[in-house]
Design brief:
Chain A: Belongs to the RNase PH family. Chain A: One of its GO terms (cellular component) is nucleolus. Chain A: This is Exosome component 7. Chain A: Its main location: cytoplasm. The structure holds 2 protein chains of 2 kinds. Chain A has a single domain, classed as GHMP Kinase, N-terminal domain (Ribosomal Protein S5, domain 2, 2-Layer Sandwich), CATH 3.30.230. In chain A, 41% of the residues are buried. Chain A is α+β, with helices and mostly antiparallel strands. In chain A, a hairpin with a 7-residue loop joins strand 1 and strand 2. Chain A is built from 5 helices and 14 strands. In chain A, the strands form 4 sheets. In chain A, strands 1, 2, 3, 4, 5 and 6 form a 6-stranded mixed β-sheet that branches. Chain B is of the alpha+beta class. Chain B folds into 5 domains: 162 residues, 5'-nuclease (Rossmann fold), CATH 3.40.50; 101 residues, OB fold (Dihydrolipoamide Acetyltransferase, E2P); 81 residues, OB fold (Dihydrolipoamide Acetyltransferase, E2P), CATH 2.40.50; 256 residues, no CATH class; 110 residues, OB fold (Dihydrolipoamide Acetyltransferase, E2P) (Beta Barrel). The longest helix of chain B is centred in the C-terminal third of the chain and has 37 residues. Chain B is globular and about 90 Å long. The N and C termini of chain B lie far apart (73 Å). The C terminus of chain B is likely disordered. Chains A and B meet through strand 3 and strand 9 of A and strand 1, strand 2 and helix 8 of B.
Chain lengths: 291, 949
């Protein structure tokens, strides 16, 4: 991941600041940076969202395609994640530089979503054992300024909220031949219930304390971080430790509690924002990438 | 301003795709009106004073038709009276989607400057573009777009101009909505009826609205057609079968559905009775359901013509007729798979030629139209000019066939002229045989080389200069499209050099341009009696490509080196420049050869060619090439009136076969070359060998004369034909050859990559193509292109190397050739009728060619005319007849008719049915009381007067 070099003195400065609940950019330990969300930014996807968190910028597009359900769960659709670390984000990603990170990120996303409470996968089924919707969630990193996981998870939630799956129905003839028919009204579509989709909260352990939404500089000062995915009810769907250092059980407990609290608080304003944007309808002036 | 258009569609593989297109809105789309001051249009289309006098719209106005009006009432819109019409882009796009022919016609109307039709691109105009709203269907959206555009126009055109915009729609809802927003809107028919200038236009209104059913009893006559989706799934599951409907020519209650199978497994399903036919019209693609086996019937041999004299209420009578079909006792094995039509997949309606049968009620405006093609049902049309249309050939289009109507409904399109008139009849037979015969469009003509044309330096450098050779052409008299010329000279080594030079049409017609497309669609030049319908514009066919004498022309040459035994030592192909020294007719060439005193270059040339041709021909016959015969007639046409004044069978001279021999040789050489070079995409011609059962009639025929004929191979057939001779009956052999011709299959073009059997049966060659007549056949142009690529003289293009495109082209060419042949025959038949009309009654000698159940078919060698002598007569009791199918013979009142019997008949013209005039023959000799007719008084003048009436 994109890193910055930090001198010992700087490290000490950050460390002492966090100890006193004072961060370099003036935030408290449980505060996020400025977040911007915009949905429906890529017209040829079925749902898309762009999220900027500080200077971290991610774009998520969701494409719905008809596929075959997995044999183990014939009555469910599924999600596929792909994270593209473009060299636009940071020169380190040039060539195949971003591949490792991309795989790590997408694997994490699979784990976060592999919980039956997150998303009603049954609603993605068209005809059991034969056809289902596959949602391809493509994440594109546009700019890295720390805390990718949180930004991506918010963007995914927003993009899924925005996703409009064309309505299809199966018509069956007498001898069992099935045919998928598409509704001819483009406005006739199905929405995904995103209420229970978790957001990831990354907590960085700095000194004896931990902070949310660490900048690159803070990250460089931390030995390990804990990644917690929390739904709006505070349910934790996934916990992962990243980074080289170790965490003692007590701080893990503490960090989980913080994560749950912060995560719960994150969902409400996000949903409110998305609904507000939706209600503006087509009259909304799009900001896009140049705004 | 950028908008994006988004829609979701289903792909063929079953996936769902979201498609997003950019859509730009502009503010520089002009309204196209001369009165407008705002728009900066340099050449506005719509006139300042649009004048269409209508009793409803007394003010000047522009018309805006909606999609359905354009689709269904295109015949009306095409009328020169209708001008100043705004065609919206929305409408144009929808028309394009729904009907290609209608789209082409509206496009033509828009291009016609006199019509002042203006296309307004409302979909790209900033103020008229609308987006589809949630819950709105695509159609509703388009209707709204049309209304929005009409609204914009009515606001946009300055009030001072006093021009209003009138919207035409047949959709009730659309009309109501438009009225609510204050637009002027009328139904199409009420507007057309209000036009003062041309009341006849009403006739051309297509009958679409459903309120017009009052004339028919509300009783439903036909079962409902299934919706397309149900048909499709039914076909998939095998419940229904898809096929092409073919109506029976002789029985209007019967038809067959031809089902294309894999390879040769095509089958036919019989349909019997109006209910089972269920409104299918000849050539429609239909879905049929097979009936259970116990309901299967045999095809009836009854001739039933739909008289149309009975009204709709006399259906009982029809049911009787249907019963007549079914109560016939039949053998079990003659039962055919029988079915019923459940739905129509694709209508293949075209405009039909025919005549009007006037209604019995004098004031009625509804009349029945009888098409010339007997396979097409009668069509009910509405017209007020019935009196003027009586006795005229007219064109009618079908609009629809509701389930409670006995006949399809249609509307009048065009008057072709009075029946029996030569121009009219020629037009009719061209239309009926689908021969494209309209003058070439400007677009096509724009690809002609500019005149004066001369061979350029560049051409000279690329081509071999053969101007010094003594080349000459031999053709029928009066031929202006000379596409082949020959030369022959002795080489220093004692061998002979023979060259066939073919007009280089592919030099002028470049692949893919409009002229090429037009030629590909026409496929062939059609020769009618006294008229030629060219495949390529006349400048090419009769001038630049024609290898006339003493002018320099571009040619594609095939040059052989041969020894004295006509064995080919060396073949080469080259593009060349030639200068023909003489254009001869067959007779002239023959005279030169025969005249011992002539010793000029040309004559020597011809003698050399003639000598080689004889050897070639002998070799070909040795291999088993067939010499078949069909009676061909030629008319001597009066140069003033263009009426046929005499008719004679075509005579063949030695020079005919001389030219033919070298053409065959060239074709074979070229076929081999292009096949060697392009084994996958060579365009070849094959003639399949006929199945043995085809020869049955020939075997039976010859048995009666105590002769045998072998048909196992072409060679044996040729030999037996040569040996079959009867003392004192010189015409017998020709008769036999005519019969043999009838046993043959049709020769066809095909693409070498998609077929494995290349043999040409009739010519007894393993490979064959057409190379020698590029002016009159499109196949030859393709072969020229292939050969040019093969010798590196020209570049290739993708379609030439695509075997599927090639195969599609072959299908069209085969179809056009077949139709051209039919048209030619029909033209000869018509001229024969004209000839006999002027001659009155003639008595001639003839031979029996076929024997039928109730008739004999007689060939008159003098005229090459074939006719049927019926022994049944409506007014008289039929004579006692016994038909022996085995021999076959027909015994009438004790006299037995055998094949090849000599008879005398009297020939006259039967004009009782003006649409289907025919030659009538009656028996004179042998005299059979009550059957044969007495020798009529030789009184042709009086008869003529009577017939001319």
């Amino acid at each position: 991941m994109a890193t910055v070099q930090v001198s010992e003195a700087e490290k000490l400065y950050v460390l002492h600041g966090v100890r006193d609940d004072l961060r370099v950019d003036g935030r408290g330990c449980e505060d996020y940076r400025h977040v911007e969300v915009e949905t429906d930014v890529v017209s040829n996807t079925d749902g898309s969202a762009k999220v900027s968190l500080g200077h971290t910028n991610v774009l998520v597009g969701v494409k719905a395609e008809i596929g075959k359900p997995k044999p183990m769960v014939p009555d469910e659709g599924y999600l596929e994640f792909f994270v593209d670390c473009s060299a636009n984000a940071t020169p380190e990603f040039e060539g195949r530089g971003g591949e490792g990170l991309g795989i790590e990120l997408s694997n994490t996303l699979v784990k976060v979503f592999s919980n039956k409470h997150c998303l009603d996968l049954k609603s993605l089924c068209i005809s059991p054992g034969e056809n289902c919707w596959v949602l391809y969630v493509d994440v594109l990193l546009l700019q890295c300024d720390g805390n990718l996981f949180d930004a991506i998870s918010m963007a995914i939630k927003a993009a899924l909220f925005n996703t409009k799956i064309p309505k299809v129905h199966i018509c069956e003839d007498e001898d069992g031949g099935k045919e998928i028919e598409l509704s001819d009204d483009p406005y006739d579509c199905v929405r995904v219930n995103v209420e229970n989709i978790p957001c990831i909260v990354t907590l960085c352990k700095i000194g004896h304390r931990h902070v949310v939404d660490a900048t690159l500089q803070e990250k460089a000062c931390s030995v390990a971080s804990l990644l917690i995915s929390v739904t709006h009810t505070g349910m934790v769907t996934c916990v992962r430790k990243v980074g080289g250092g170790s965490l003692d059980p007590e701080s893990i407990f503490e960090m989980t509690e913080t994560g749950k609290r912060v995560g719960k608080a994150l969902h409400a304003p996000l949903m409110e924002l998305l609904q507000k944007e939706e209600s503006l309808g087509s009259k909304r002036q799009k900001v896009g990438f140049l705004g | 301003m950028l908008k994006s258009k988004t829609f979701v569609k289903k792909t063929r593989s079953g996936g769902i795709l979201k498609v997003v297109r950019e859509h730009y809105l502009r503010d520089d789309i002009w309204c196209g009106s001369e009165v407008c001051v705002e728009c900066k249009d340099e050449s506005p289309v719509l006139e300042k004073d649009p004048c269409m006098e209508s009793s409803m719209c007394t003010f000047p106005h522009y018309l805006i038709p909606d999609t359905n009006v354009v689709l269904h009432q295109i015949d009306v819109l095409e009328d020169p009276l209708i001008r100043n019409v705004i065609i919206l882009q929305t409408v144009l796009q929808e028309v394009r989607h729904r009907s290609a022919p209608a789209y082409k016609r509206i496009k033509d109307a828009i291009h016609n400057k006199e019509k002042h039709f203006y296309t307004f691109t409302n979909e790209h105009h900033r103020e008229t573009f609308i987006e589809r709203e949630p819950g709105e269907s695509a159609n509703d959206r388009n209707d709204r777009a049309i209304r929005a555009a009409a609204h914009w126009y009515s606001k946009h055109i300055p009030d001072s101009a006093e021009i209003k915009v009138v919207m035409l729609t047949n959709d009730r809802l659309n009309k109501e909505k438009a009225e609510q927003t204050g637009l002027l809107v009328y139904r199409c028919d009420e507007y057309i009826k209000s036009l003062i200038a041309n009341p006849e236009l009403v006739d051309r209104l297509a009958l679409t609205s459903d309120e017009k059913n009052e004339i028919t009893s509300s009783k439903i006559l036909f079962p409902e057609h299934l919706p397309l989706s149900q048909i499709q799934s039914g076909i998939k599951s095998g419940k229904y079968i898809q096929g092409t409907f073919r109506a029976n020519r002789d029985n209007f209650l019967e038809g067959t559905v031809f089902v294309h199978g894999e390879g040769d497994e095509s089958t036919e399903i019989l349909l019997q009775g109006l209910q089972k036919l269920n409104r299918a019209v000849h050539q429609d693609v239909v879905a049929v359901e097979l009936l259970p086996q116990e309901d299967w019937v045999a095809p009836s041999a009854v001739v039933l013509q739909d008289d149309g004299s009975k009204g709709e209420d006399e259906e009982e009578e029809e049911e009787e007729e249907e019963k007549k079909l079914q109560t016939k006792q039949v053998h079990r094995d003659s039962l055919k798979p029988t079915g019923r039509v459940v739905g129509i997949i694709k209508r293949n309606w075209r405009p039909y030629c025919g005549m009007l049968t006037l209604s019995h009620i004098k004031e009625s405006t509804r009349h029945l139209f009888t098409p010339a093609d007997r396979r097409i049902p009668r069509i009910r049309i509405e017209t007020r000019q019935a009196a003027t249309l009586e006795g005229q050939r007219i064109m009618v289009a079908i609009d629809g066939w509701p389930k409670n109507s006995r006949y399809p409904r249609g509307h009048f399109m065009k008057n072709l002229g009075s029946a029996g008139d030569k121009e009219t009849e020629t037009e009719v037979l061209l239309l009926e045989h689908d021969v494209p015969h309209l003058p070439f469009s400007q677009n096509v003509l724009s690809f002609l080389p500019s005149m004066p044309w001369a061979i350029t330096e560049d051409d000279m450098n690329r081509r071999e200069d053969l101007r010094h050779l003594c080349v000459c052409s031999v053709d029928p008299p009066g031929c202006t499209d000379i596409d082949d010329a020959l030369h022959c000279r002795e080489l220093e080594n004692g061998n002979l050099e023979v060259g066939v030079h073919i007009a280089d049409v592919s030099h002028f017609i470049r692949p893919g341009n409009a002229m090429d497309q037009e030629a590909a669609s026409r496929g062939t030049t059609v020769y009618l009696c006294g008229k030629r319908i060219d495949m390529v514009p006349e400048l090419l066919s009769s001038n630049l490509c024609s290898l006339r004498s003493n002018v320099e022309r571009l040619a594609f040459s095939c040059i052989w080196e041969m020894n004295d035994n006509a064995e080919i030592l060396n073949t080469r192909f080259t593009k060349s420049v030639i200068n023909s020294k003489a254009s001869l007719t067959y007779a002239e060439a023959q005279m030169k050869i025969d005249d011992r005193n002539m010793n000029d270059d040309i004559t020597k040339n011809l003698r050399g060619l003639n000598k080689l041709a004889k050897i070639l021909k002998a070799g070909r016959i040795e291999k088993g090439a067939l010499t078949l015969s069909s009676p061909e007639v030629r008319f001597h046409i009066d140069s003033e009136t263009h009426d046929p004044i005499d008719l004679q069978t075509k005579e063949l001279q030695e020079t005919n076969s001389m030219v033919e021999e070298f053409m065959l040789l060239a074709n074979i050489s070229v076929a081999q070359k292009i096949y060697d070079e392009f084994s996958e995409c060579a365009l070849l011609r094959k003639h399949p060998s006929p199945p043995p059962s085809n020869y049955d009639i020939l075997h039976k025929a010859i048995k009666t004369k105590n002769l045998v004929i072998h048909t196992d191979s072409a060679k044996e057939l040729a030999d037996s034909l040569n040996q079959a001779d009867i003392e004192g009956f010189p015409y017998f052999n020709t008769l036999l050859r005519i019969l043999a011709t009838r046993c043959m299959m049709q020769a066809v073009y095909f693409c070498s990559g998609l077929d494995s059997d290349f043999r040409h049966y009739g010519l007894a060659t393993p490979i064959y193509t057409h190379f020698t007549s590029p002016i009159r056949r499109y196949s030859d142009i393709i072969v020229h292109r292939l050969l040019a690529v093969a010798i590196g003289a020209d570049s290739t293009y993708p379609a030439l190397m695509d075997k599927h495109k090639q195969a599609a082209l072959c299908n069209n060419l085969n179809y056009r050739h077949k139709m051209a042949q039919y048209a030619q025959r029909a033209s000869v038949a018509f001229h024969t009728q004209l000839f006999f009309k002027s001659r009155g009654i003639l008595n001639e000698e003839g031979f029996i060619l076929f024997v039928r159940k109730n008739a004999i078919i007689v060939l008159i060698p003098k005229f090459g005319l074939e006719g049927t002598v019926f022994f049944e007569n409506k007014d008289k009791p039929s004579p006692k007849m016994t038909f022996n199918e085995e021999v076959p013979t027909l015994t009438v009142e004790g006299h037995t008719f055998n094949l090849f019997d000599r008879v005398r008949v009297t020939i006259s013209l039967d004009a009782s049915n003006i649409q289907h005039q025919k030659i009538r023959m009656s028996l004179l000799e042998p005299v059979i009381p009550g059957v044969s007719v007495p020798l009529p008084e030789a009184e042709p003048e009086a008869k003529k007067a009577k017939l001319d009436r």
